[in-house]
């Protein structure tokens, strides 16, 4: 890699990082819901940059330069579009971009209690769907589960219900509803190992993020809490990649026999960056294959 290529690769990476970080802090400070979009882009960018530093051999500098140039144009276009609808002549009051929905857990209202009861019932339905063929499902992992024929599309229904139930867990915790919290936590635990969807846990993170976004504390304190929660969340996201490979039955067996630690030691190589670096690698791969189509 020449000196010019080195400066171009890292310069574009840092430029994108600064742009994303500035857009996130500004929108987070002003309590914009779309700030979570900048946060997600920042997380992907960080993981992709770290992956490139660890193993630059999967692509070439010119592909990275072209890719980061395209991403920079996309980030600028996204920023200008959001500002146009938020601060520009196309802004509308009241705007869903500006005003987060009211909290369900602020006051113990009948609506909030009904919401949690509906979510608890949904969790029970999702569990019933997963165990409709008997307890033998416990001994299958998430890959085998996804390969089972489902002519009535009950599995996707269970997945969608699971996404709703996962986010309600934080609401139940904040409202100190012990019974519903325990029920939802059990459902979350079981559904994750049966469905293998780490994305479900991002809905819990989304609920916590909305809570933090609307909390009346100073920005530095918010960002500090967000950094701590992000570190914990990312660690869980990476760890869950390994744990779901055990399956529910395998996890129970490993825990009862005391072999869970040894199993994790033997599969620590699966941790990596959580698998999310593959998104950028695919992006660079597409650019490489369509090299002549780009300016």
The amount of helix comes to over 70%
Q: Which spans have pLDDT < 50 for at least 5 consecutive residues?
A: none
Q: Major sheet, described briefly?
A: none
Q: Please work out how many helical segments DSSP would assign.
A: 12
What average pLDDT do the residues reach? 78
Q: What's the shape? A: globular
Q: Give the SSE string.
A: HHHHHHHHHHHH
- What amount of the residues lies in strands? under 5%
| Termini separation | 21 Å
Computed over alpha carbons, the radius of gyration is: 22 Å
Backbone structural class:
mainly alpha
Q: Quick one: how many beta strands?
A: 0
Descriptive overview:
The chain is an all-alpha fold. The protein contains twelve helices and no strands. It has helices spanning 3-29, 35-54, 61-86, 110-130, 142-147, 154-174, 178-195, 199-213, 219-243, 247-257, 260-266, 277-289. The two termini are 21 Å apart.
In summary, what is this structure?
The chain has 295 residues and is mainly alpha-helical. The chain has helices at 3-29, 35-54, 61-86, 110-130, 142-147, 154-174, 178-195, 199-213, 219-243, 247-257, 260-266, 277-289.
What does the secondary structure layout of this molecule look like, with pairings?
Elements lengths: L2 H27 L5 H20 L6 H26 L23 H21 L11 H6 L6 H21 L3 H18 L3 H15 L5 H25 L3 H11 L2 H7 L10 H13 L6
Helix pairs in contact: 1-2, 1-3, 2-12, 3-12, 4-6, 4-7, 6-7, 6-8, 8-9
Defining key terms:
mainly alpha; globular; 12 helices; single chain; 0% strand; 295 residues
């Amino acid at each position: 890699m020449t000196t010019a290529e080195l400066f171009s690769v890292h310069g574009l990476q840092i430029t994108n990082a600064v742009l994303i970080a500035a857009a996130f802090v500004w929108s987070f400070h002003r309590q914009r819901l779309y700030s979570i979009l900048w946060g997600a882009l920042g997380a992907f960018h960080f993981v992709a940059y770290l992956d490139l530093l660890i193993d630059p051999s999967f692509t070439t500098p010119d592909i990275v330069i072209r890719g980061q140039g395209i991403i920079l144009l996309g980030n600028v276009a996204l920023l200008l579009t959001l500002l146009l609808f938020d601060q520009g002549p196309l802004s509308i009051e009241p705007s869903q971009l500006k005003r987060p929905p009211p909290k369900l857990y602020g006051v113990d209202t009948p609506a909030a209690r009904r919401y949690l009861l509906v979510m608890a019932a949904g969790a029970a339905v999702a569990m019933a769907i997963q165990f409709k063929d008997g307890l033998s499902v416990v001994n299958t992992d998430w890959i085998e589960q996804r390969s089972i024929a489902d002519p009535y599309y009950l599995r996707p229904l269970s997945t969608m219900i699971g996404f709703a139930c996962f986010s309600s867990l934080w609401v139940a915790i904040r409202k100190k509803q012990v019974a519903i919290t325990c029920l939802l936590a059990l459902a979350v635990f079981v559904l994750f190992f049966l469905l293998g969807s780490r994305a479900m846990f991002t809905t819990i993170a989304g609920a916590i993020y909305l809570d933090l976004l609307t909390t009346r504390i100073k920005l530095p304190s918010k960002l500090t809490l967000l950094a701590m929660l992000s570190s914990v969340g990312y660690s869980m996201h990476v760890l869950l990649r390994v744990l779901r490979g055990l399956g529910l039955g395998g996890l129970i067996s490993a825990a009862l026999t005391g072999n869970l630690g040894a199993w994790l030691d033997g599969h620590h190589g699966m941790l990596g960056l959580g698998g999310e670096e593959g998104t950028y690698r695919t992006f660079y791969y597409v650019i490489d294959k369509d090299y002549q189509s780009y300016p």
